Amino acid sequence: MYFDITMPLTLFAVTLVALFANQKTEGKLKENLQERQMGVWDAALLVGVMSVMIYLIVFVREITYVLMVLYLFAYSMLLFTFTYLFSKSRWYLGILPPAVFILLYVFLGVLRDDPLWTYYLANIFGLVFAVLITLYLVGLFTWKTTAIFGVLITVMDIILVLVTRTMVEAAKVAVGLKLPVMVSLPLIPPASELGVSMMSLGLGDFFFAGLLGIQTFKKYGKRFAIVCAAAMTVSFFSFETALLNYWRIPFAGTLMIICGWAPLVIWKQLTVRKSTVPELRTPAVRQITSG
């Protein structure tokens, strides 16, 4: 029986980091960025735009370099925003992290194809980006839009990974550009006899787990959110074990995550709803006596 503990534990750790960091950053971000919350149609539109972008990456190769520039710009702006806001608005400190990121990407990733970038720095920057984008976007979601977005993004992921395999091809293009869009970690314990030494997970899956964890925290509190994060990790571990031993195909990470979260949340919703339903009482009968 082959299994891996590295990626599940990393997923759990990143989810907890995002969950607790949101307590420190949410107020500051709302105060300075004045984000509005998304509606149901906004969530559906976001999933639609993501699908179109993935298809463009695969079928319109000329646009890949434009997307590379947009990704680098988005990452740099995130690094600048967080550094600027939490360094007492010192712009000269804000430009340092994005400048370091761009220089390392260009000189180690693109020009030299250095293993230091491929196996270490790309993963580190990827994990940092996963946490930052979660903290930045989570304020746009409500509990309702999170649930709708979760269902839609999971359906999209299943179609693009398991049916059309477009997501797999898009990931190959992005990795070929040396962009930190996936986290690739060695299997522990090793399974070299399978011909598999690394497990990869897209940053979108880390964002998805962080979003579910934070929204659960807001809705039901810290303890239940941690339980849900653990359940997502166990579900991911179970699917990954099945992949290593039986399926050995690319799989939808969102499905692996939501299968741990959804049952607990549905149970919690039903429990809370049941406890808040008022008891049906028969009206008191007033006795009238004649004197």
Features:
11 helices; 291 residues; 2 strands; two-stranded antiparallel ribbon
Task: Reconstruct the topology from this structure.
Blueprint (H helix, E strand, L loop, with lengths): L5 H28 L6 H20 L4 H22 L5 H4 L1 H16 L3 H23 L5 H21 L2 H11 L5 E5 L11 E5 H18 L1 H26 L5 H24 L15
Antiparallel strand pairs: 1-2
What does the model show?
The chain contains 11 helices and 2 strands; from the N terminus they run ααααααααββααα. It has 291 residues and is mainly alpha-helical. It has one domain (6-268). The protein has a two-stranded antiparallel sheet with strand order 1-2.
User: How widely separated are the two ends?
Assistant: 86 Å
Number of strands: 2
Low-confidence stretches: 280-291
Question: How are the strands of the biggest sheet laid out side by side?
Answer: 1-2
Q: Average pLDDT value?
A: 87
| H/E topology pattern | HHHHHHHHEEHHH
Tally of discrete structural domains: 1
Shape: globular
Tally of helical runs: 11
Major sheet size, sense and barrel closure: 2 strands, antiparallel
Helix content: over 70%
- Report the oligomer: single chain
Structural class by secondary-structure content: mainly alpha
Share in β-strands: under 5%
Query: How much is the radius of gyration in Å?
Result: 23 Å
Offer a quick outline of the entry.
The protein has 11 helices and 2 strands, in the order H-H-H-H-H-H-H-H-E-E-H-H-H.
